[in-house]
């Protein structure tokens, strides 16, 4: 699979798709390369702050690296504005198969910034971020949302 292929084809072609989920400090290129040696079908990057990614070349160079064998790959971003999410997605779109909006990070610093699981309090904003990204980034390009599942029914109304 290359960066221009629709990632959904992977799920149509295989009965079982193995996925390496985004892990803090562990989902960088070197780890993705390792898990692909063990036949991992789809890899995610660690969560990247979309605002820093858009503003800083240094952040881009540090947070996202890839190579020709690193496909399919989904880049996970934390964002709470359309401009930041779509801008970051646009920048990585030539080098990945899609982006994922992280709406499940439970860390206090993320909640204080209004990202991660705090986004679940704003379902209209999540919808707008996804819709705008879908409309502005060339297809095929996957846009997904990572949601946390709670033990109670607080998410039922979403």
UniProtKB/TrEMBL annotation:
Residue ranges occupied by any DUS-like FMN-binding domain in the UniProt entry: 20-151
SUPFAM superfamilies registered for this protein in UniProt: FMN-linked oxidoreductases
GO molecular function terms attached to this record: tRNA dihydrouridine synthase activity
Pfam assignment, any one: Dus
InterPro entries for this protein: Aldolase_TIM (IPR013785), DUS-like_FMN-bd (IPR035587)
CDD domains the record matches: DUS_like_FMN
PANTHER family: TRNA-DIHYDROURIDINE SYNTHASE, TRNA-DIHYDROURIDINE(20A_20B) SYNTHASE [NAD(P)+]-LIKE
Name of this protein: DUS-like FMN-binding domain-containing protein
Organism: Photinus pyralis (Common eastern firefly)
């Amino acid at each position: 699979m290359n960066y221009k292929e629709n990632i959904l084809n992977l799920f149509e072609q295989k009965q079982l798709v193995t996925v390496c989920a985004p892990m803090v400090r562990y989902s960088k290129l070197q780890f993705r390369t390792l898990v692909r040696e063990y036949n991992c079908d789809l890899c995610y990057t660690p969560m990247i702050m979309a605002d820093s990614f858009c503003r800083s070349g240094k952040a881009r160079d540090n947070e996202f690296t890839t190579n020709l064998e690193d496909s399919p790959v989904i880049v996970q971003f934390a964002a709470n504005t359309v401009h930041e999410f779509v801008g970051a997605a646009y920048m990585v779109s030539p080098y990945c198969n899609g982006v994922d909006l992280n709406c499940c990070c439970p860390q206090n610093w993320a909640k204080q910034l209004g990202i991660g699981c705090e986004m679940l309090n704003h379902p209209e904003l999540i919808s707008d971020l996804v819709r705008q990204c879908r409309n502005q980034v060339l297809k095929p390009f996957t846009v997904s949302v990572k949601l946390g599942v709670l033990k109670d029914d607080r998410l039922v109304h979403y």
